[in-house]
Amino acid sequence: MIEEQLIRRGITDQRVLDAMRTVPRHLFVEDAIQSQAYSDFPLPIGSGQTISQPYIVALMTMALQLTGSEKILEIGTGSGYHAAILSRLCQKVYTVERLDALVSRARKIFDRLRYHNIVSRIDDGTEGWPSEAPFDRIIVTAGGPRIPTPLIDQLADPGRLIMPVGGQEVQELQVADKRDGDIKITTIEHVRFVDLIGAHAWPN
Ligand code: SAH
Predict the structure, then answer these.
(1) Ligand 1 lined by 129 (C-beta under 6 Å)
(2) Residue to mutate, 53, 73, 194, ligand 1, most ligand atoms under 8 Å from C-beta
(3) What is the pLDDT of residues 136-173, one digit of tens each?
(4) Pairing with 48, which of 30, 78, 99, 152 sits 20 to 30 Å away (CA)?
(5) pLDDT at 28
(6) Does Cell membrane appear among the keywords (predicted)?
(7) Is the omega angle on the peptide bond into residue 24 within 30 degrees of 0, that is, cis?
(8) Confidence of residue 95 (pLDDT cuts 50, 70, 90)
(9) Does ligand 1 have an atom closer than 6 angstroms to the CB of 120?
């Protein structure tokens, strides 16, 4: 996975590669598909949701440019895999998921792995996590029509947010940089994510 899917495609950040080597991805997928956990495609994680392919996890993580001191907000806990990767590379991860079943499962894996710098909650993540703001980095792992305003408000200055933005079929990975009160958006590449559903995204 590391050599063929990541390094060969330009994932050069050594810390990201180390985290991807360390976190046991097979624990985060359902038992029946554990043998495919390190394959080059997204996988079902239950409740109609998917875990991104390893390359997309690495690409988004690299784009966050983490140094180890950051406080990160993740929207879309899903299996918990991406939160686990982030937790190895920053100070603390706050992750929000709207589906109870997924949060409960992810929490058990975090405990088992003793990843104690991850806190999670069940809520509409398009509202952010106001009581813990601001966040140095925000990552949204579901696709929406636009970046939710509460997330822009809860981003630290300077700070960086990454999110798939577009239609329900295909999105572009957008990076929003906040600096001196201004927001600058750049685009990385086209991706396909499951829907971000909430007050500031797609309706339920
Ligand atoms: N990061 C995850 C992949 C998440 S898939 C992983 O590593 O496995 C996207 C997740 O976003 C789904 O679990 C979906 O339920 C969740 N989601 C969608 N809309 C949401 C919202 N408004 N708030 C929180 N989570 C949301």
Answers:
(1) no
(2) 194
(3) 999 999 999 999 999 999 999 999 999 999 999 999 99
(4) 152
(5) 96
(6) no
(7) no
(8) very high
(9) no
Q: In what order do the strands lie in the sheet with 71-75?
A: 118-122, 92-97, 71-75, 135-140, 155-166, 171-179, 182-191
**CB burial of residue 115 (10 Å; 0-12, 13-18, 19+):** middle
The structure's pTM equals 0.98
Domain assignment present for 154: yes
**pLDDT tens digits for range 14-71:** 999 999 999 999 999 998 999 999 999 999 999 999 999 999 999 999 999 999 999 9
CA distances from 192 to 9, 76, 92, 165, 196 (A): 18, 14, 27, 10, 12
> Average of pLDDT values for 103-129?
98
Total tally of structural domains belonging to the chain:
1
In the predicted model, what is the mean pLDDT of residues 109-131?
98
User: Residue 196: inside a domain, yes or no?
Assistant: no
**H-run or E-run covering 93:** strand 92-97
> Which among 35, 47, 52, 87 is annotated as catalytic?
52
Structural domain harbouring 75 = 2-191
Q: What is the CATH number of the domain that holds 16?
A: 3.40.50.150
| 85 vs 88: CA distance, rounded Å | 6
52 catalytic? Reply is yes
